[in-house]
Amino acid sequence: MKPITIAIAAALIAGCTVRSDERGFLVATKLIEATAPAGSTACVYDAATNENVFGFFDPAVGYDHALVVENRLPSNAATGPGRLNTNDFQVEGATITTEVLVGPVQSVATQTVPANGRIPVGQAAAVGIALAQPGAILGGSDVRFHIQIFGSLADGSKVKTNTYPYAAHAIAGFTLASTCTGTQASLFCEGRSQDTGIACQ
Q1: In the chain, which residue ranges form alpha helices assigned H by DSSP?
Q2: Which parts of 17-96 fold into alpha helices (H)?
Q3: Which of 33, 113, 178, 186 is the most buried (most CB within 10 A)?
Q4: Cα 155 vs. chain centroid, distance in angstroms?
Q5: What is the pTM of this model?
Q6: What are the residue ranges spanned by the domains of the chain?
């Protein structure tokens, strides 16, 4: 192999190096709200739900949504008796860094929050997380959350997803309007103080 070919190959390999356990096979794809399926009065996080372009929440109450994560790893089980698959992803928590884009000058501490879920190889699942704690962000702020899920594979390897960005507006006193008829009771899936699905009972 020519020296120039070796140099190019080395550069390509270096460019594809995984850093800080951000594995390209554990991919955060969108942030979703809880919704109530048609005909149901119970709310769920459905990985097929579309993402909102921009979020809204009352900062005094906090903000909760779910990050959809795809486990793109293949099964590494042996074709015959012996080795079991160890590439299922066990979620253990999330790290959230908040960037203030517009609004009052403030410093929002990076948070590590609990999260749980198991995502088998070749599947996607929604992982519910608290993006903002009550009172952590000032009203009138546009913020961008940088969200990263961490956990381990079944063999104990510690792994993380890519960091996923999502922007939202903190509006003091924000209240979501009901879309239900006058004879129905409204269930706001994640509370009335943020954008979320509504079930009508």
Answers
A1: 3-15
A2: none
A3: 33
A4: 23
A5: 0.85
A6: 18-33+50-172
